[in-house]
Every structure is written in structure tokens, then in C-alpha cells.
């Protein structure tokens, strides 16, 4: 296995055997209890709060975080941690206000929510669109970035073999259904956290050794060195560049590129909230873990995940900053400076034994996300398309069998798209690729869900217009607004910068995509309200909302307060 020592291989194999054995044990244990479709797709009533929380983290933290977010940490710094830290706050909102509505109305899939609240047309359109998004954007990026990272560690000659191996591992777990996924995710997240923190600890020691000349590296000294050597990488809020047009020769060129990805304070009033609330609250891939539980269990699990999110930047972002400091001081001679290679460059420093643990952690994140994603794809297709339109009299056994075939087909499609990186995921930058292209539909989808939950007057026509308008507006702001309205308006500021790719200089003019999302969402909301005002004062399909649904017990309140206090401390420290 290339550069891995025997002990590294043994550690990795132990991880594989433990996860596979535990998954098989769970499958056999639970199979005798229930074999229905809801049990297979949702693990109805089977997941504990800690299993839900762990599964949420394991499904969320994958290749795009380890590779993509470390890359953004290398390029931008701690500002990218906003995606993780605001997620903690978003999960509180989801747990308190969103989940009670789903559970009270017995919602099992997001298309089902849209059909119950609006109509079948909206539900079918979004079911097809979600399937396309999950397979073509999410599944492919997880697979490509993960395989690329592991391949780099093994010498760069095994990319396709690693892709196949990752899919086969995910297949073993995914075919077992949500129970197997949920409980194996507990092991996956434990390996992910232990391996992740071990990697960060060693990286900080290496920084202390290489930069300060310490004989035995000290992790705390290494962290202080990062702050001293790269103070600009420890600013949560990026300042708006003073110039809107730059070239490669200008020092402001990098500042503009960073601001376009993370537009300072403005993103907190625009797309950052839409990204997180849509991802955590209106996303089958995520909410599915809680939809089969009771309210107390679901809430606690979601809040537990939110608490863990506060610590994720240490694992997924800090290695990127360490790579930046080492690279800027000439201590990463084999690294070419491409941001998505930063995490792999750090792993190359790890000693024998720890490298195997780090690869196990990375593999755990990738496999958990792949398995969770294909389960969501399978759930939407089977429950919202196959059962409703293709075979309305399908038995429970036929639905489960269909779901398993969908998992296999989805993996084959993802493999076909990633075999030669048809989508250009590597060139865009993995984390940015996912956020940007998911962001095209997020404004309309989130507007449709938000008004559908909390405004009884919202109509099906408004929902259909909203999801289409949100997508059209996102495309408009991304590709056409600057050409029509210019670079500087009261709504936005566009930036022109130069970027060197494969020896070719590209001139790019764009509005920060988080700003695009904010305006797309705002205009879509206004349009949906105006259309709904022409309808009845109370839509007969509106959900009944009882204020008691949103009350929380003392234990839940304590967990919320703890999360908010820690989040406040982090923002005060790194503002």
C-alpha cells in the first residue's frame, strides 16, 4: 500500500473489521425485530439520542470538510469556521422550531412535506431535483475528494482503486439500512474525532519543531506560533477590499479572492444563514436521522450534534492553517500550494502508526457520508417516486429491495462522473464547489419550507414559483447581474481578479456567492408572499401549530445555553 508501513495497514484493517463486524451484528439483531420500509429507511424508534447526534456529525463531516475545509483554512483561515459555528446555532433553531413540526405531522421525507403542505407537483419536481443534486453534486464530490486525499498519501497511483474500495465499504453499510448506518456512525465519529485530534496535535508539534527549532514539539507552542506567523488567518470577519479590480501582481488580488468566498460581516446578513438552515433543516440527508424518533430523543440528538460542531474546526480547519505556515516558511517542499492538497501535505508528516489512524479517520468520514447519502437517495426515490407513481401497490419487501437497487445504481453513476473528474471538482476547490452549486437551489427551497411551516397563507402556486424563481435569481446574480447593472450597486459589489490555473491566467468577475444567495432568498420570499396574498387567508393544507410544541425541558435548555456560551466566547476571541 504505497507509503504505509505495516503497523499503519494493521490499524486501518482493525478499523475496517470493527466497523464491518459491528454493522453486521446490528443488522442481524435488528432484522428480527422489524423488516418494514420505514424501519429500513428511517430506523423508526430505534436510534438513541447519542446515535442520532453521532450520525449527524459523521454524515456531515466528510471529504469536503477534511479536504475542502482544510483547503479553505490554508487559503482564508479561521473565517471559514463560520460554516461550522453558525451550524451549531442553526441546529438549535432546527431542534426547537423545525423538528416539532415534522414529527407532529408525521413527515418522513422532504418531498412528503411538500406534498402535504402544497401539492403533488411541487413534491415531484423537488424529489427529482434532490435526486439529481445528491447524486451529481454531493455524492460525486464526497467520493472524488476523499479518494484523491487517500491516493495522495499512498503515492498518487491508486485513485480509481480507492474510489471502488470506498464505494464497496459504503455499500456494505448502506444496504443494511438506516439502523446499520446510524449505529456504525457512532464508531465512525469516534474514529473521526480521535484520529482528527491526533492529527492536529501532531501537526502543531511539527510546527513548533520546524518553525521554532524545538527538539520535542509542543502543541500549545505550535498553536501560538500559528497565531504569530499568520495573524490574518485568525480573523473571523474579513474586511472588504478597498479595490474591486486586481491582477496577479497586486497583493490585494488574494484579498479579493478570499472575500469573494467569505464576504466578511455581510455574509451573516445574507447567505450564511440560508446555507445552514436549509442544509440542517430542509435536507433529507440530515433530517432523516431524527424523523424516526420521538421529539425528546430527536431534539437531544440534534443539540448534541450542534455542541460537537463547535469543535469540528479544530479537526478540519486547523490543519490547513498549519500547512499554510509551514508552506510559507519553506517546510513543505513537496506541496504545490493548491489548497485542496493542504490536508494531505500535513498527513505526510505523520509518524508510523498515526498515519494509519489518520487515514482510518478520513475513511470513516467518507464512508459514513457516502452511506448516509445513498440511503437518502434511496429513501426519496422509493417512498416519493416508486411507491407513488411507478408501483402504487408495492409491498414492504419490494420497497426495501428497490431501495437497495437504487443504492447500487446511485453509486455506479457517481463513480462514472468522478472517474475522470468530469465536473471539475478539483479545480473549483471542493468545499467551495459544493457550497456554490448547492447555493443555486437553497434560496428557493428554504423560502418554500420556511413560509410553508410558519405562514398558513402560503399557497402551492407560490411554492412552485418560489423554487423556480430562487434558482433563476441565483443564476442571474451569478452570471448576468454584473453585465446588466455593473459592478457596484446598492445591492452588491462585484470584484474582478486574476487566477492562475495550470499555467493559464484567468480573469474572473463575480459577486460573492453568499451575497447572491441572500438577495435570491429575499426577492423569492417577497414574490411568494405577494402571490399567496391573492389566495385564501388560511390555506386548507396549512399545518396546525401549537405553541406547546416549541417548549423545551430543563435538560434541553441547559444544552442550548452551554452551546450559546461557547459560541459567544469563540466569536469574542477571534472577531
From TrEMBL:
Q: Gene3D superfamilies this protein is in?
A: Sodium/glucose cotransporter (1.20.1730.10)
Taxonomically, the superkingdom here is Bacteria
Keyword annotations for this protein, in alphabetical order, are:
Membrane, Transmembrane, Transmembrane helix
Q: Does the keyword ATP-binding apply?
A: no
- Which stretches are transmembrane? 6-27, 47-68, 74-103, 124-147, 159-177, 189-207, 259-280, 301-326, 346-371, 405-425, 437-455, 462-485, 513-535, 556-574
InterPro entries registered for this protein in UniProt: Na/Glc_symporter_sf, Na/solute_symporter
Q: How does it sit in the bilayer?
A: Multi-pass membrane protein
What is the name of this protein? Sodium transporter
Amino acid at each position: 500500500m504505497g507509503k504505509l508501513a505495516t503497523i499503519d495497514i494493521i490499524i486501518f484493517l482493525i478499523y475496517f473489521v470493527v466497523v464491518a463486524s459491528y454493522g453486521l451484528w446490528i443488522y442481524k439483531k435488528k432484522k428480527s425485530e422489524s423488516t418494514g420500509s420505514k424501519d429500513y429507511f428511517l430506523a423508526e424508534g430505534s436510534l438513541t439520542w447519542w446515535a442520532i447526534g453521532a450520525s449527524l456529525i459523521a454524515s456531515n463531516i466528510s471529504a469536503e470538510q477534511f479536504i475542502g475545509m482544510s483547503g479553505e483554512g490554508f487559503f482564508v483561515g479561521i473565517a471559514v469556521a463560520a460554516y461550522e459555528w453558525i451550524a451549531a446555532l442553526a441546529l438549535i433553531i432546527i431542534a426547537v422550531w423545525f423538528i416539532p413540526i415534522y414529527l407532529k405531522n408525521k413527515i418522513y421525507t422532504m418531498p412528503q412535506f411538500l406534498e402535504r403542505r402544497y401539492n403533488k407537483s411541487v413534491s415531484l419536481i423537488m424529489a427529482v431535483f434532490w435526486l439529481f443534486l445528491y447524486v451529481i453534486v454531493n455524492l460525486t464530490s464526497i467520493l472524488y475528494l476523499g479518494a484523491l486525499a487517500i491516493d495522495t498519501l499512498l503515492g498518487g497511483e491508486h485513485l480509481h482503486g480507492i474510489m471502488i474500495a470506498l464505494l464497496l465499504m459504503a455499500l456494505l453499510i448502506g444496504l443494511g439500512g438506516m439502523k446499520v448506518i446510524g449505529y456504525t456512525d457512532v464508531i465512525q465519529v469516534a474514529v473521526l474525532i480521535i484520529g482528527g485530534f491526533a492529527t492536529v496535535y501532531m501537526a502543531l508539534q511539527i510546527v513548533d519543531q520546524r518553525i521554532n527549532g524545538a527538539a520535542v514539539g509542543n502543541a500549545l507552542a505550535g498553536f501560538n506560533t500559528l497565531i504569530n506567523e499568520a495573524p490574518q488567518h485568525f480573523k473571523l470577519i474579513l474586511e472588504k477590499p478597498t479595490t474591486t479590480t486586481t491582477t496577479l501582481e497586486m497583493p490585494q488580488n488574494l484579498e479579493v479572492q478570499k472575500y469573494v468566498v467569505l464576504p466578511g460581516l455581510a455574509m451573516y446578513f445574507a447567505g450564511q444563514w440560508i446555507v445552514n438552515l436549509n442544509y440542517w433543516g430542509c435536507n433529507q440527508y440530515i433530517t432523516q436521522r431524527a424523523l424516526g424518533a420521538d421529539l425528546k430523543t430527536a431534539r437531544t440528538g440534534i443539540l448534541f450534534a450542534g455542541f460537537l460542531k463547535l469543535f469540528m474546526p479544530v479537526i478540519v480547519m486547523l490543519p490547513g492553517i498549519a500547512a499554510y505556515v509551514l508552506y510559507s516558511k519553506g517546510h513543505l517542499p513537496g506541496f504545490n500550494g493548491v489548497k485542496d492538497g493542504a490536508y494531505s501535505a500535513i498527513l505526510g508528516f505523520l509518524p508510523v502508526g498515526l498515519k494509519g489512524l489518520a487515514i482510518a479517520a478520513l475513511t470513516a468520514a467518507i464512508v459514513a457520508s457516502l452511506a448516509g447519502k445513498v440511503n437518502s437517495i434511496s429513501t426519496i426515490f422509493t417512498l416519493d417516486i416508486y411507491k407513488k407513481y411507478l408501483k402504487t401497490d408495492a409491498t414492504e419487501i419490494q420497497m426495501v429491495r428497490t431501495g437497495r437497487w437504487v443504492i447500487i445504481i446511485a453509486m455506479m453513476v457517481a463513480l462514472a462522473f468522478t472517474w475522470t473528474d468530469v465536473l471539475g471538482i478539483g479545480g473549483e476547490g471542493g468545499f467551495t464547489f459544493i457550497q456554490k452549486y448547492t447555493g443555486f437551489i437553497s434560496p428557493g427551497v428554504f423560502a418554500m419550507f420556511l413560509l410553508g411551516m410558519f405562514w398558513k397563507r402560503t399557497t402551492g402556486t407560490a411554492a412552485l414559483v418560489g423554487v423556480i424563481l430562487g434558482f433563476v435569481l441565483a443564476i442571474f446574480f451569478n452570471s448576468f447581474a454584473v453585465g446588466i447593472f455593473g459592478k457596484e450597486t446598492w445591492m452588491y459589489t462585484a470584484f474582478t481578479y486574476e487566477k492562475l490555473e495550470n499555467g493559464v491566467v484567468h480573469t474572473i468577475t463575480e459577486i460573492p456567492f453568499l451575497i447572491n444567495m441572500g438577495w435570491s432568498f429575499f426577492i423569492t420570499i417577497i414574490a411568494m408572499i405577494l402571490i399567496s396574498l391573492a389566495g385564501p387567508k388560511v390555506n386548507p393544507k396549512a399545518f396546525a401549530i401549537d405553541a406547546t410544541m416549541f417548549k423545551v425541558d430543563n435538560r434541553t435548555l441547559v444544552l442550548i445555553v452551554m452551546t450559546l456560551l461557547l459560541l459567544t466566547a469563540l466569536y469574542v476571541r477571534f472577531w
